[in-house]
Every structure is written in structure tokens, then in C-alpha cells.
Design brief:
Blueprint: E1 10-16, E2 20-29, E3 32-42, H1 57-71, E4 82-86, H2 88-92, H3 96-104, E5 112-113, H4 116-128, E6 137-142, E7 147-153, E8 156-163, H5 167-174, H6 182-196, H7 200-206, E9 210-214, H8 216-227, E10 237-238, H9 239-249, H10 265-268, H11 271-284, E11 289-292, H12 297-309, H13 314-325, H14 330-351, H15 355-367, H16 379-389, H17 397-408, H18 416-443, E12 455-461, E13 464-469, H19 477-492, E14 496-501
Parallel strand pairs: 1-4, 4-5, 6-9, 9-11, 13-14
Antiparallel strand pairs: 1-2, 2-3, 6-7, 7-8, 10-11, 12-13
């Protein structure tokens, strides 16, 4: 895979939102992402969630059919230049894995379920690349299942939050039959105000110079107000115009009657709920004027992907930030990283490991000791917990799950039942990466800058590995003892680890 992108190469992103699925294909033009293909379908995945958060078969089939159509447009885009992200509906779905497994048969790349704050970060990245000034801005994105709020300057977010309120979810809760009434609208507004109470104080103290909205609800409301002559001179959405839109909406008794000029048919059903959320946001945050940006999550995903190719990967910054936050020893981390990279290079071809696997392993090596900030006893488990449950910018939930397994299994006993858990999460590759990290940590148990013995790892077959020590093993009695203990752990995970040196051949 190329380490950089040149102009005219393609990038693509699929954004699996709770209301709509979006596909964007773009060319890189002098460092900017220029869309050449854009598709959007109202899948309303969130509408398929029942009271127990199980995704209905009908909603799954709508999503899969849409993804099949999207894939038909991706022929010119290599899979390593594509990202597929899913948001609130699949975050909430108890049977999300079932849908993801079905989608894997269609898609050229796995789906990444991203956390709410990561969604907010990517939205801000997409919006900020469409804005010409660098003033502090509040970005608001009302989706189908959640609403994201970001305060940032230039391309850097400062505060990111995701609240559980969205136009599809609120339609189900407050306008389930499509009936419109002042009572239902007010209930939706009150519910949104309660959600906003969690962030209102912090955001008001932080402050902003301008407010920017993105995505369907805000786009629709703005367009209606422009057509009604109720926007300002710059065609921005205003508090006054929003009040007038509310008054006119409440004159309708059912969503089927809504006939605002410029409103798309598939947006009509969720307009009352979306407007109620936006109305509450204006009220609680005391907003007077809001501009609209075409940039959104899918654009942010592509700019983030572009940064990865240009070695501006937010994930590496996040890893360094976590090391600093939890006081991980940078020297020991670097020793383990260098060793694990050497081991990886020796076996990558035989184990069919990729550059992405190398990146995952390297980041886990940097983070393997963060759990020491909590307690020395069982610190590998503490580190795994932190990685599983923290908001780590740049990482999907699947990425964090993989990191958590790597860190959680880098020392102590390997249980046979854990093997099935790891294989379920990341297949055989994740098993191999766990074992490579264990060897790298073990080889550096002395925590010394003294050179390690010269070694080579060879994969005879998937169940048989051989580690050869070329130096005099009498100089490393503790290391050799540790390696023999490690053989027992490898066998628990169905790998025969043979230890060999110029002095002896291991017979165990």
C-alpha cells in the first residue's frame, strides 16, 4: 500500500447514519477532498429498533439493499482508500453484530462502529474544511438517533459531545402515527431540553463566535425558511425564522399534509421531531443565527483517511496522549515497540498479516502498561478496561476492542476460553498479534537498555512457531526460564512454541 496519496487519486466514505446512508467518492486535489460522486438513501435504520433495541429484519434488509447499491459505485476505489462508518443506530442495536456479519458479505471492507464523540470529531473535521475562517465555532449535527455538538477552532475540536436525541428516534417517541399537535411538539422540546442540560453550562462557558449546522434536518429547515423569505441576508437560519416555522408547522394535523416548498418527500415524516430538537437547541444555548455547511460526517471521514496516508494520523496522537495521561513509561514502551516490530516483520508473510495489523500491534505495544496507573496487580486487565471504555479519538469501537484484547492478554495466563473470545472478535490474526506482543514484552522483561540477544522467529506452520536465540543462552538464564514458562501459555492457545539456540535444541 502506498504511504501517500497523489492528486487525482480516489477516496471514498460510506456513512451509515440512523436516518440516511450516504456514499461519497472524492478526488484529492492539492490537499483538498473534492467530491465526484454523492449518493444518499433514507434507510431509517433507527426506525427498525424495537423497545429492546433489536434491529428488525426489515430494517436490516433496507440497509443491506442500500449497501449493495453503493458497492456498485465503488469499482474504481481500492479498499484501502475506503472507510465505512456506522453511528447511533448500530451503537444501540443489541443484534448489531448480526447485521455487520451480513454486510461483510457485501462490502469490500469491515464496518467501523464509531462512538458518539468520535462521530462528533469527524463531523467537525468535515465542517471545518468547508469554512473559510478560523474563528471559534459551535457545530451542531442533528442525526436520526443522536445529535452531535462540537466547539472548535480551525481544524481542532475543543469540546465534543453526542446526545441521545435524533429526528428518527423522536419521531417514534412523540409522533409515532404522524399526527402533529402542540402537545406532542412541546413534549419533544422538553425531552430535548433535558438532554441539553448535560452540556449547556460547559458549552456556554466555553463560548463561540459562530454557529454552524450540518446534515439533513438543519439543511431542510434552512431551505424552507429561505423559500419562505424568513432567513437573513446570508440565508442563515435565525431564531425568529425558527419560531415562525414552528407556528406554521403546527397548523398541519398530520405529516402527510406538510407541503413546504423545497422539502423532500422523504424528509416530511421526520420534520416535526427534527424541528423540535432544533427549537430546543436554539432556546437552551441562546442561539440567534446559524449558518449551514455541506461538510458532514462522510467528508470528515475522508479527510481523516487522507491524514492517515500523510502520516498525520489522529490515532497516533491519541496513543501518545493516553500514554501521557496514565504515566506509561515511554522508554519501556519504545523497547517493546522495536522488538514487536522486529518479530512482526519476521512472520508477517507466513501469517498473512498486513500493514494495518502492524499499526494495531505497534499502538498496543505503546499502550500495554497504561493500566499501571490504576494498580500493579492485574494491570493488563486495567489497561484493557481503559481501552474498551475510553473515548479515544480516531478509533472505532472495533479498533478499541482489538487493542483491549491485545493489552489484556499481553501477560499472565492465557485461558483456553479466552481464545474463543479473541477469535470471535478478530479471527486468527488477533490471536497471532496477541502472541507476538507477549513475546516482545517477555523479551524486554529486564527493562534494560542493554542489547537483547539476537533472535529470529519462524513460523513452521500455523500451529508451530520456533524462536531461535543466537547468542550464548548462559548470559540470559531468566529470559530462557521465562520462555519455557511461556511455552505452556502458547499451548493453551493451540500454538507449539519451540525454543532453540546454538547451544541446545528445545525438546519440549
Amino acid at each position: 500500500m502506498s504511504d501517500f496519496l497523489i492528486d487525482e487519486e480516489l477516496l471514498a466514505a460510506i456513512d451509515m447514519g440512523s436516518n440516511s446512508f450516504h456514499l461519497a467518492i472524492a478526488r484529492v486535489d492539492h490537499g483538498e477532498v473534492k467530491k465526484v460522486v454523492s449518493m444518499s438513501e433514507k434507510v431509517q435504520l433507527a426506525a427498525g429498533l424495537d423497545e429492546n433495541n433489536y434491529l428488525s429484519e426489515a430494517a436490516q434488509q433496507r440497509g443491506l439493499a442500500c449497501l449493495s447499491r453503493f458497492v456498485g459505485r465503488l469499482g474504481a476505489v481500492p479498499s484501502h482508500r475506503l472507510r465505512i462508518v456506522a453511528t447511533n443506530a448500530l451503537r444501540q442495536a443489541e443484534n448489531g453484530d448480526e447485521f455487520i456479519q451480513k454486510a461483510a458479505e457485501i462490502l469490500p471492507k469491515p464496518i467501523e462502529i464509531i462512538a458518539g464523540r468520535e462521530e462528533a470529531r469527524l463531523i467537525y473535521l468535515g465542517v471545518s474544511h468547508t469554512m473559510v475562517n478560523g474563528e471559534r465555532r459551535l457545530v451542531i449535527d442533528i442525526g436520526g438517533g443522536s445529535t452531535e455538538f462540537i466547539i472548535g477552532e480551525k481544524f481542532e475540536p475543543i469540546h465534543t459531545e453526542s446526545l441521545q436525541m435524533g429526528c428518527v428516534a423522536y419521531t417514534k417517541a412523540f409522533f409515532p402515527m404522524g399526527d402533529i399537535s402542540s402537545k406532542a411538539f412541546d413534549k419533544a422540546v422538553v425531552a430535548a431540553r433535558k438532554e441539553l442540560a448535560a452540556i449547556a453550562s460547559t458549552y456556554k462557558v466555553a463560548g463561540w463566535d459562530a454557529v454552524v449546522g450540518s446534515s439533513g434536518t438543519i439543511k431542510a429547515c434552512r431551505q424552507i425558511l429561505v423559500n419562505m423569505g424568513l432567513s437573513d441576508e446570508q440565508q442563515n437560519l435565525t431564531a425568529y425564522g425558527l419560531q415562525k416555522l414552528k407556528e406554521r408547522l403546527l397548523k398541519f394535523q398530520h405529516v402527510s399534509e406538510i407541503d413546504f416548498e423545497g422539502l423532500k418527500d422523504d424528509r416530511r415524516a421526520v420534520l416535526p421531531a427534527g424541528l423540535a430538537i432544533l427549537y430546543a437547541i436554539f432556546d437552551v444555548l441562546k442561539i440567534e443565527t446559524l449558518s449551514y455547511s455541506d461538510g458532514a460526517l462522510r467528508e470528515g471521514v475522508m479527510y481523516d483517511l487522507l491524514g492517515r496516508f500523510r502520516h498525520e494520523d489522529i490515532r497516533d496522537r491519541s496513543v501518545q496522549a493516553m500514554m501521557g495521561r496514565y504515566g506509561a513509561d515511554p522508554k519501556q514502551a519504545e523497547r517493546v515497540v522495536l522488538t514487536v516490530q522486529q518479530l512482526f516483520e519476521q512472520v508477517a508473510e507466513q501469517l498473512h498479516l498486513t500493514a494495518e495489523d502492524a499499526d494495531l500491534l505497534r499502538r498496543a505495544a505503546y499502550l500495554h502498561e497504561i493500566g499501571l496507573a490504576i494498580s500493579h496487580g492485574g494491570y493488563h486487565r486495567h489497561g484493557a478496561y481503559l481501552l474498551q471504555h475510553s473515548d479515544v479519538p480516531g478509533f472505532s469501537q472495533i479498533d478499541q476492542n482489538h487493542l483491549a484484547h491485545l493489552v489484556g492478554h499481553h501477560r499472565r495466563k492465557l485461558r483456553q476460553d479466552a481464545l474463543l473470545d479473541v477469535q470471535k472478535v478478530g479471527a486468527k490474526k488477533l490471536i497471532y498479534l496477541c502472541l507476538l506482543l507477549r513475546l516482545a514484552v517477555l523479551l524486554n522483561n529486564s527493562r534494560s537498555d542493554t542489547a537483547l540477544p539476537t533472535f529470529a522467529l519462524q513460523v513452521k506452520n500455523e500451529q508451530s512457531w520456533q524462536l531461535t536465540i543466537f547468542d550464548d543462552v548462559k548470559q540470559y538464564p531468566l529470559l530462557i526460564a521465562d520462555l519455557h514458562d511461556e511455552q505452556i501459555q502458547f499451548k493453551h492457545w493451540q500454538i507449539d512454541l519451540q525454543i532453540q539456540s546454538s547451544q541446545f535444541v528445545d525438546e519440549s
